[in-house]
Specification:
Elements (H helix, E strand, L loop, with lengths): L7 E6 L11 E6 L3 H7 L1 E8 L10 E4 L8 E12 L3 E7 L2 H15 L2
Antiparallel strand pairs: 1-2, 1-6, 2-3, 3-5, 4-5
Amino acid sequence: MARILRGEIRWADLNPTRGREQAGQRPVLILSQDVFNERSGTVIAMALTSQPQRAGFPLTLELESRGLPKRSWVKISQIRTLSIERIGKRLGRASAEDMGQVIQGLNEIVGA
């Protein structure tokens, strides 16, 4: 498999899930650093959705990536550690500005 890089948007298999977790085959935004992705066999990612979101920032952020087939929002509150075996084809890449906002939103949620 090709290297999985921070900021990439990739397909991922999020099943099985519980409760209100995002499920199914869906795009995710890779948050973890490249070296972590290579050495750990896992990635830290956030689920994306194409459903318009009522909750605004810091819980969600609309992404402007050319590779996405639909208008999409990253669900900042839906962060998961995933085996690289769950990660599939690359769809696009988030901008540096979007990545900064995602990290800022996560920091607001967890209280950094």
